[in-house]
Design goal:
Layout: H1 3-8, H2 13-61, H3 66-101, H4 107-112, E1 120-122, E2 125-127, H5 130-133, H6 136-139, H7 166-180
Antiparallel strand pairs: 1-2
Length: 193
């Protein structure tokens, strides 16, 4: 989000500062989480490389020991589970980051609108995500923060916001009629003046 865009909307500098601060918090939070996940991923990759080397050595030197083979199989399964967990965390964080970039109100609500079977994440790139989110601005605008604020009431009929409402008009008519006929004075008729 750019300050110039917010200025073009006619927002005050103090409001722009608040919006930018809040947006910065979201971005910094995601960046921190991403760095944390990258650190965990690097650690898991190091552990995986060490475990793979150990497994290969154990397989080569102890092929006759059934108990050892069972442990090796268990370690291999553990490694696969760790890989899958690491990939899932990376996917979740990257998806969260992409949804925040789209300026959604709630990433949880936005995820509910996605067909996750069509979203894939490989080599740091999403496929199937952009195709689903491109139409959100028109078809699912309730998901997207617009940043617009309403400062004046404008009736749905397109009337002038400075004109009297219907109730005030009726009261005015009643008051003018009451001046002509004092016997029908309505004590509530000037409530909107």
């Amino acid at each position: 989000m750019k300050r110039e865009w917010l200025k073009d909307l006619g927002l005050e500098v103090s409001i722009i500062d608040k919006i930018m601060d809040e947006n910065g918090k979201d971005v910094n939070k995601v960046k921190g989480e991403l760095e944390s996940i990258k650190g965990v991923k690097a650690d898991l990759e190091t552990q995986l490389a060490t475990a793979n080397t150990t497994i290969t050595e154990l397989k080569a030197s102890n092929t006759s020991n059934q108990e050892l083979q069972t442990k090796v199989t268990e370690y291999e399964q553990t490694i696969e589970n760790m890989k899958a967990d690491s990939q899932k965390k990376e996917f979740e964080l990257a998806l969260e980051n992409e949804l925040i970039k789209l300026n959604v109100h709630s990433t949880k609500a936005a995820r509910a609108e996605l067909d996750m079977d069509k979203v894939k994440y490989e080599n740091g790139q999403f496929t199937g995500l952009k195709e689903q989110t491109d139409t959100w601005a028109k078809e699912k605008s309730f998901l997207i923060k617009t940043g617009g604020t309403h400062t004046q009431y404008n009736p749905a009929s397109g009337g002038d916001p400075d004109t009297k409402g219907y109730a005030a008009q009726v009261a005015s008519q009643r008051n003018s009629g009451a001046e002509q006929n004092k016997s029908q004075n309505n004590p509530y008729a000037n409530a909107w003046d």
